[in-house]
Amino acid sequence: MIDLHTHTNNSDGTDSPRDLVNKAIAQGLTVLGISDHDTTSGWEEAVQTLRGDLALVLGSEISCLTNDGISVHMLGLLFDGAHLEMQVMLEETRDGRLPRMRKMIEKMKAAGIDISMDDVEAARPDGATLGRPHLADALVNKGIIASRDEAFQGMLNNESEFYVSHAAPTPTDAIQMIRRAGGVAVIAHPFASHRGQILQASDFHELVAAGLNGIEVDHRDQNPDEREMLRSIAHELDLVITGSSDYHGTGKLNALAEFQTSPAQWEKLESLADQRRVVRA
Q1: What pLDDT was estimated at residue 198?
Q2: Selection from 67, 235, 77 nearest residue 165 by Cα
Q3: Per DSSP, what are the bridge partners of residue 184?
Q4: Are 231 and 223 in contact (CB under 8 A)?
């Protein structure tokens, strides 16, 4: 079983890297991708926990914005974690999250919602990359909403009155950086329309020109018609097709390995990195 897109409590998941690796081993996964938002801080603990037949694919899910303001998530996998330019880009993206969070909280307060930055910080694990899921958890803790999923379907949706974008690279900039750092770039859940505005099929040509390697096709946030359309785009543009859980622990309904990548597609994707960086025990 190959699951290339998961999160730990170094961003907005609820499992530590150690716990996630242990769950993957217990569940019989053969390849686990760890891709926390805009950080590589969970890599070391995950590697230290690795044992048996499990292989680790280390990466990061990079928050991007198109020139039209559409939010896009780009999975960078198998890149050099010591690449300075990449780490600077990730740090700058993380730094943009705090003013964004403050603006969203201000909007909610203006609408009469009892929420504060202290509430969000109390819901965020130490060292985790700040994000909307922590605001969702704070809202749940205060009884304002019932779950993260409810939050992202309503108050925290990209089309919500409370949504605020933040400074982020464009998808093409992120792809080019991932490739310069020796990794592979896979666009995450690009047709997840319930999250807000999405890309169009014509947008993929520009991404391929920038160096895009693959499309996350099989994902719970994309319906069967959306998956079939993405599969066709991937075949047309000779892109790798991945399937992933986007597992967040108890933070979302997504179950580990509920969607998977085929061994043949994974072999093709791995071969496109500039070095063999899969970590094995």
Answers
A1: 78
A2: 67
A3: 77
A4: no
Domain 97-153 falls under CATH 1.10.150.650: yes
Sign of CA dihedral 142, 71, 183, 224: positive
In which region does residue 136 sit, left (phi positive, over 0), alpha (psi from -120 to 50) or beta (all else)? alpha
Distance between CA atoms of residues 133 and 150, nearest Å: 11
Specify the DSSP element, H or E, that contains 133: helix 132-141
Domain boundaries, the chain: 2-95+167-280, 97-153
Contact 145, 115 (CB under 8 A): no
- Backbone phi and psi for residue 107, each to the nearest 5 degrees, phi listed first: -65, -40
What would the pLDDT profile of 260-273 be if each residue is shown by its tens digit?
Answer: 999 999 999 999 99
Residues 6 or more apart whose Cβ sits within 8 Å of residue 99: 166
CATH superfamily of 2-95+167-280: Metal-dependent hydrolases (3.20.20.140)
C-alpha closest to that of 192 among 230, 154, 162: 230
252 C-beta neighbours (distance < 10 Å), count: 22
Q: What is the pTM of this model?
A: 0.88
Q: Are 173 and 200 in contact (CB under 8 A)?
A: no
